[in-house]
Amino acid sequence: MASTSDIRNGLCIKYNHDIYKVVEFLHVKPGKGPAFVRTKMKSVTTGKTIDNTFSAGHKIDEVRVETHKFQFLYKDGEFYHFMNTDDYTQIRLVESALDSPGLMKEGEVVTVIINTEDNAPLSVEMPPSVVLEVAHTEPGIKGNTATNATKPATMETGAEVNVPLFINEGDKIRVETDKGTYKERIKE
């Protein structure tokens, strides 16, 4: 058993007969009243996100997990297929177990969180950022760069990302996976 002081991003806990992964948390100590921890948790089985507040010192049931590196192989309908980079075993996961499936291209190495009790994969964590090629975007208009204006761009994986006006088709850009936002253009 753990307590609220052990809450951190990525922690997996049993809550309401399901397993949740902590996405965000905030320790709050108001001037009046007891301290508490405000959390945003994502169910690893359904993919639903809930907000919950734990009072300080509340006992939580932690799920023991291991992390392994897996390579994304391909998507087959609603299933995503991965291969362990150590022993080459393969697993398949539903889309709800993935944090940002639209930003994942074939060959991408991700971290899979596995429950140590039954060896069931719980969720997939992407690297902090990925490099993707712009498949389609409208051309930028010369002289229209006075503000931080953006335009929609479709990546090679099919994901939509807002990019600055100077980005063209064929450019490679770095995208932050947690927010799905443009970070920088990659020069070759």
TrEMBL record:
The terms under GO molecular function for this entry are: translation elongation factor activity
In this chain the Translation elongation factor P/YeiP central domain maps to 67-122
Say yes or no: keyword Protein biosynthesis present: yes
Q: Which UniProt keywords apply?
A: Cytoplasm, Elongation factor, Protein biosynthesis
CDD domains xref list = S1_EF-P_repeat_1 (cd04470), S1_EF-P_repeat_2 (cd05794)
User: Which compartment or compartments is the protein found in?
Assistant: Cytoplasm
Primary location = cytoplasm
Q: State which pathway it belongs to.
A: Protein biosynthesis; polypeptide chain elongation
Residues in domain Elongation factor P C-terminal?
Answer: 130-185
Q: Which PROSITE patterns match?
A: EFP
InterPro entries recorded for this chain? Elong-fact-P_C, NA-bd_OB-fold, Rib_uL2_dom2, Transl_elong_fac_P/YeiP, Transl_elong_KOW-like, Transl_elong_P/YeiP_cen, Transl_elong_P/YeiP_CS, Transl_elongation_fac_P
Question: Which Pfam families does the UniProt record give?
Answer: EFP, EFP_N, Elong-fact-P_C
Family of this protein? Belongs to the elongation factor P family.
Q: Which HAMAP family match?
A: EF_P
| Protein name, UniProt field | Elongation factor P
* Organism, scientific name: Mesonia profundi
